[in-house]
Amino acid sequence: MMAAATSELQEIRRRAAESFETRGYPTKRDEEWKYTSVSAIAKAQFPAEAPSLTGNSLRTALEQHPGLIEEHLGRYASSEENAFVALNTAHFEDGAFLHVPRNTVVEEPVWIDYTAVPDRTTHPRNLIVVGANSQVRIVERYRGSGRYFTNAVTEIVAGENSVVEHVKLEEESAQSFHVATIQVHQARNSNFKSHNISFGGLLVRNDVNAVLSTGCEGTLNGLYLATGKQHIDNHTALDHAAPHAASHELYKGILDGISTGVFNGKIYVRKDAQKTDAKQTNKNLVLSPGATINTKPELQILADDVRCTHGATVGQLDEEALFYLRARGIGEIEARDVLIYAFARDVIERIGIPEIREYLEKALFERLVFSRQSSGGAL
Amino acid sequence: MNKTSMSKTAILEIKDLHATAGGKEILRGINLTVYPGEVHAIMGPNGSGKSTLAQVIAGRDLYGVTSGEVLYEGDDLLTLAPEERAQRGIFLAFQYPVEIPGVSNLYFLKAALNAIRKRKGEPEVDAMDFLSLVRRKMALMEMEESLLNRAVNAGFSGGEKKRNEIFQMAVLEPRLAVLDETDSGLDIDALKIVSNGVNTLRGPDRAIVVVTHYQRLLNHIVPDYVHVLAQGRIVKSGGKSLALELEESGYAGIEELAEAVR
Ligand SMILES: Nc1ncnc2c1ncn2[C@@H]1O[C@H](COP(=O)(O)OP(=O)(O)OP(=O)(O)O)[C@@H](O)[C@H]1O
Ligand SMILES: [Mg+2]
Fold it and tell me: What is the C-alpha separation between A305 and B256, in angstroms, rounded?
């Protein structure tokens, strides 16, 4: 427990601990965890430790301005709905805090960089509060070495008419467990974009949830690349709680080796959320016969004057395209990489931070090379 | 064969080639020899195996070669991967060029050119040289430069795709070009542009094989030889006048000929 925690926050944390104690880890009988078993996480029992990060410390901030933090921390991510959120809320020791005051444009992207150490559990807890009419871009990155468990929660409050872009780079070690929730609260007319990139980790589960108010625009994009025995599960939820909001969602997955992928995209359109415009797309490229993907859209529409579309595809590399490239002299391996990159490209190109786009282009190619060299990959 | 070609090695030599697809024999004993400087036209009814022949030359593994030989510059072609064939100077203009979303024309062409240069032991093409080369060839093909930044063939009209094939050929300067129905669906202006692009490549050391249904193309790209393919065999060969004959009489007699040689 953090020394400076105020009583109300303490109460939230106490209830979270209680909630986890009564319910424990989710099982595959739990609809939300149907395709993802977390028994390996439960079994591992790595001792907890404060996370190591570069960025503004939440712990320090809590000592300096407890009021602002108390107003938001633990108010959005639900400990009742998600056991790992409960676990994090009960046990977090530190994380990143970012407050952008009203009418402020932050020019440079803000980095939050975590490095995990072997044989430890960490519960990184991030709070990002963006004031009205402000603008900011944030990069949250997770890396580490060895076996460990990262259980992160990020709460983002996008103030009225603000523009917020968030990139999450999950580049955890090949043996690690990574569970994370990003919970976004969008005030009126705000514009929020999430780019959720998952490359690493043996067992990965992301929950990205956004609640949209009137006039909001919400974008949830994602890219996952799983090779070897990796398991990457992305659950997203776009909650159209008020009228005239638009949401766009594009998740793309590349699966090789004997990896498994899960995509579950929920769109809620509440009763009075008229004129909602929601579009969800999930596309998967399956590169080896041993790899699998479970993809499922879940639309719950209670308003009648709305436009909601969704589509999911699962396909292999286009053999015709591969031959066309090779027939022009481009070697087979390069041709495959080019096609895989072309598939991933439109997710990467939607990221508004040029350095990140360049970085990801390189990182993707490196991963492809790595996958090819390690045994299981058909890449 | 004319006198000059007798002394040179053939660019392409196909001997009794049999190939199957989907368990069915499609090429049933093709013989064809192409010498440097020559233009050969291959005509024949739908489904006779013209594209299969073209794709086998380019190395498509969809087709299984069951017997026979294909030599390129005297070397066994059939053991080479498609990219090796291209690097050695073979170019196939596809009957149905493939759309590749997410890969720009410019990137694609540069990668192709560099692969060919690498094989010749040349360094990667200089960015400025490449751009001026590409601009020149685009002007030749009367293509909009904006096409360069678009994805390969994605959203191109039929005519644009065909023109893009010949544009690629013009940049890559192959030794053997096989054009599979590059004229189909083109209006007369586009046909002239495409033919002009092909004729620009023509030279004493190169060879071109054009697959077509229409004699019209052969007014612009005048062939040295015309072959008629039917039911997986070349059933008739002749000079350019054969194309005119076929235009007049159709393939009715040809099918009979094919039956007769079975
Ligand atoms: N991949 C394949 N699997 C099975 N059959 C095939 C395949 N490709 C071609 N064929 C068959 O082989 C025969 C010859 O096809 P091909 O495309 O070579 O003909 P073509 O002469 O080019 O015809 P067209 O003038 O219509 O282009 C046809 O009967 C066709 O259906
Ligand atoms: Mg054909």
Answer: 66
ipTM value for the complex? 0.95
Instruction: Please determine, for residue A55, whether its predicted confidence score (pLDDT) is greater than 90.
Output: no
Q: Which two tokens stand for residue B238?
A: 């002749």
Q: Which of B60, B83, B98 is facing A330, going by the closest CB pair?
A: B83
From chain B, the residues in CB contact with A342 under 8 A are: 100-103, 151
Q: How many domains does chain A have?
A: 1
pTM of the model: 0.91
What residues in B contact A331, CB-CB < 8 Å?
83, 115
Q: In this predicted model, what pLDDT tens digit does every residue of B28-80 receive, in sequence order?
A: 999 999 999 999 999 999 999 999 999 999 999 999 999 999 999 999 999 99
Q: Which of A318, A331, A342 sits opposite B115 (nearest CB)?
A: A331
User: In this structure, are residues A198 and A235 in contact, taking their beta carbons and an 8 Å threshold?
Assistant: no
For B3-261, the fitting CATH number among 3.40.50.300, 3.40.50.20, 3.40.50.11030, 3.40.50.720 is 3.40.50.300
State the alpha helices, DSSP H only, in B59-148: 82-87, 105-119, 127-140
Provide the CA A144 distance to its chain's centre, in angstroms: 17
Q: What is the DSSP letter of B239?
A: -
Q: Which residues of A touch B161 (CB under 8 A)?
A: none
Is A105 part of a structural domain of the chain? yes
Contact A346 B102 (CB under 8 A): yes
* Chain A interface includes B98 (CB < 8 A): yes
Task: Read off the pLDDT of residues A290-323 as tens digits, 9 standing for 90 and up.
Answer: 999 999 999 999 999 999 999 999 999 999 999 9
Q: Which residue of B has its CA nearest to A332?
A: B83
> What ligand 1 atom has the least distance to the C-alpha of B44?
21
Residue B126: both structure tokens together: 């200089």
